[in-house]
UniProtKB/TrEMBL annotation:
Residues 61-234 form the Aminopeptidase N-like N-terminal domain. It is an enzyme of class 3 (hydrolase). It comes from Streptomyces chattanoogensis. It catalyses: Release of an N-terminal amino acid, Xaa-|-Yaa- from a peptide, amide or arylamide. Xaa is preferably Ala, but may be most amino acids including Pro (slow action). When a terminal hydrophobic residue is followed by a prolyl residue, the two may be released as an intact Xaa-Pro dipeptide. Belongs to the peptidase M1 family. Residues 1-33 form the signal peptide. One of its GO terms (biological process) is proteolysis. This is Aminopeptidase N. Its EC number is 3.4.11.2.
Length: 475
């Protein structure tokens, strides 16, 4: 879904469904003299870090994911139907899919030819697709998804990870396509229906709100719906034994918190902190962008991270308050306003890390001013930390500490330069300007300059794009 016209499109889809069926037939003939001939869509959207992720030639609007999982064997049987719109005349197009076996592909309900090459699934529909035409592609597939990464990239494995009682699913940046065929890039956001089928006694948890759930014939079924545009990496289908607590935050947002009952909860009140942070961030960053907030607290020791899964972050263990407020800040920075490409990752991690300092300031523990100086002082000028240009951190270091902490420092330096008034106007203005869409660093700089009335490129140049330690502000 290209940027912000999404909501309208989804409803228009229903109205157009019938028209599409007949348009498909019309498009079957050879291209007319005036129309450019149909050609295959590009295999990727050209992300500088992941050139093959996403696909050219169409815009994904809605995913319907059906996932049937057997925790004993690890077998996933899936069916994905994507409603999409062709952005050029297409003779064929790609989806991203890593491993797994494809059983059949249909386009507009008709059997389509397909081939596999690396992580690309190339679909050749029986009839060409016309630019602007809406179509559906349905893929039936099966296999045992494999987690990605390992110790070399991003510090720990990630993706579809088998737990003691089910599966933990956290896919940033590129593991969504290990469990469903997709346009696996944040630049192509879409809405979702997710149906999980698991053995009886287990709970399947996903994004958005629970539409229905029931048990039948030894299986447990749940149907989730995310009505706001979502990046593929933020989709989950986490399955296991969970205690579920639901309610409404004091500010009025529905909340769903699932906790693995075998975990020692210690003294962390995940439900309470989630409710409080959702409400507090709504005041600082603007209206909460999604229909529900929450948490999925699972037991996945091999995953050393948590993820800001849209509407309910996943935690691989019971995490502390500062992690929870970080993941919830991502609902604005990363989930509602998503990166245009992965180079801009500091727009997610720098902001969510800065939110941790804001939380301490809010709680009266420590000001962001002091947090910044303490962090700065702790890292000597010759430390490799300062070598990372957080505005373009490179693929394998995109989740390095510098992206988080120097990113947060950049925001504090900005705040000290433009003053609290402009700074706290800028944050909600940013989330409003790109709500449900995508954005990049140059747009943030432009908005900061507009709101403050100051010229700021020197500040951002120094903090985001140099490989040395910047001087502290005010010196
Ligand atoms: N966005 C996550 C966070 O900051 C980190 C994800 C790291 N990804 C990974 N594959 N380890 O909370
Ligand atoms: Zn983060």
């Amino acid at each position: 879904m290209a940027l912000s016209r999404s909501a309208r499109r989804t409803s228009r889809w229903l109205a157009l469904a019938t028209a599409v069926a007949s348009a498909a037939t019309l498009a079957a003939g050879p291209a007319t003299a005036s129309a450019p001939p149909a050609s295959p869509g590009a295999p990727g959207v050209g992300d500088p870090y992941f050139p093959e992720l996403g696909n050219g030639g169409f815009d994904a609007l809605h995913y319907d994911l059906g996932v049937s999982y057997d925790p004993d064997s690890g077998l996933l049987e899936g069916r994905t139907t994507i409603k999409a719109k062709a952005t050029k005349n297409l003779s064929a197009f790609d989806l991203d899919l890593q491993k797994l076996r494809v059983e059949s592909v249909k386009v507009n309900g008709e059997k389509a030819a397909f081939t596999r090459s690396g992580d690309e699934l190339t679909v050749t529909p029986a009839a060409h697709l016309r630019k602007g035409q809406r179509f559906s592609v349905s893929v039936a597939y099966a296999g045992i998804p494999e987690a990605l990464g390992g110790p070399i990239i991003f510090g720990s494995p990630y993706g579809w990870m088998k737990t003691k009682d089910g599966v933990f699913v956290a896919c940033e940046p590129n593991a969504a396509s290990t469990w469903f065929p997709s346009s696996d890039h944040p630049g192509d956001k879409a809405t979702y229906d997710i149906r999980i089928d698991a053995p009886k006694g287990l709970t399947g948890i996903s994004n958005g709100r629970l539409v229905s759930s029931h048990e039948k014939g030894g299986r447990s079924y749940s149907h989730w719906r995310e009505t706001k545009p979502m990046a593929t990496y933020l989709a989950t289908a986490t399955i296991g034994k969970f205690d579920v607590r639901t309610g409404t935050t004091p500010g009025g947002t529905p909340i769903y918190v699932a906790t693995d009952p075998t975990l020692p909860t210690g003294n962390v009140d995940v439900y309470g902190i989630t409710a409080e942070a959702t409400d507090y961030w709504s005041k600082v960053f603007g209206k909460y962008p999604f229909e529900e907030t929450g948490a999925i607290v699972d037991d996945m020791p091999q995953a050393g991270f948590s993820l800001e899964v849209q509407s309910k972050p996943v935690y691989s263990a019971v995490r502390d308050e500062t992690t929870i407020v970080h993941e919830l800040a991502h609902q604005w920075f990363g989930d509602s306003v998503s990166v245009k490409n992965w180079q801009n990752i500091w727009l997610n991690e720098g902001f969510a890390s800065y939110a941790q300092w804001l939380w301490d300031e809010h709680k009266g523990t420590r000001s962001a001013h002091d947090a910044f100086r303490k962090q700065y002082a702790a890292i000597p000028a010759d430390d490799a930390f300062w070598k990372i240009k957080v505005g373009d951190p490179q693929r394998d270091t995109m989740f390095s500490r510098a992206v988080y902490k120097r990113g947060a420092m950049t925001l504090q330096a900005l705040r000290e330069r433009i003053g609290d008034k402009a700074f706290f106007k800028l944050l909600p203005a940013w989330t409003a300007a790109h709500r449900y869409g995508n954005a990049e660093t140059s747009q943030f700089i432009a908005l900061a300059e507009k709101i403050s009335g100051q010229q700021l490129d020197d500040l951002f140049q120094t903090w985001l794009y140099t490989d040395t330690r910047p001087a502290l502000p005010g010196k």
